[in-house]
Amino acid sequence: MKLSSIQRDILIGTVLGDAYLQKTGKKNARLRLEHGADQKEYLFWKVKNLQQFFQGKPKYLERIHPISKQTYKYWRHQSQSMPFLGKLQRIFYKNGAKSIPEKIEKLLTPRSIAVWYMDDGYYYLRDKCSYLYLGNIEKTDAERAARVFNQKFGLNVRVLAKKKGYALYFSPAEAIKLKLLIQNYLLDYFKYKLPS
Questions:
Q1: Domains by residue range for the chain, with CATH
Q2: N or C: which terminus of the chain carries fewer CB neighbours within 10 A?
């Protein structure tokens, strides 16, 4: 499948972030996007930029958490199932779980990092530092990501263990360097995730 560099970066950042590549058969997979109700515009932006993967329109859904009984409101869209996404699924998932591919340095660009950060990044105002949550991946995968940020982008990040996996930690100085790297690709809605 032929993708523009923008589409490729959005897809890579999305797969590293909140998206789920669901295996459908031996060779195919589909891309599932889910974002909270307040991020509707963000989901629609992704769908618009990756329109050759999707048919129909995103759906608004609500579900009640079985324990907290809180209502979770969100938007979802699923792509068509196709071999191209099946290949991507095999690159980004090991034994059914998301992972950081061994050749991640070839896939990461400032724009793909920006999309990943819009999905899973956080700026902690009090301490003026940033985090990029990696989820429940293996520590070696988190260390691989940190190495690429350091060697390819000159960002000195640390791997931190969190309750639900790992995160990359950007000190105040590194958070400013991260901002300079990705700010031109962040949607205005997400500027709050950067140092002022």
A1: 5-93 (3.10.28.10), 104-187 (3.10.28.10)
A2: C
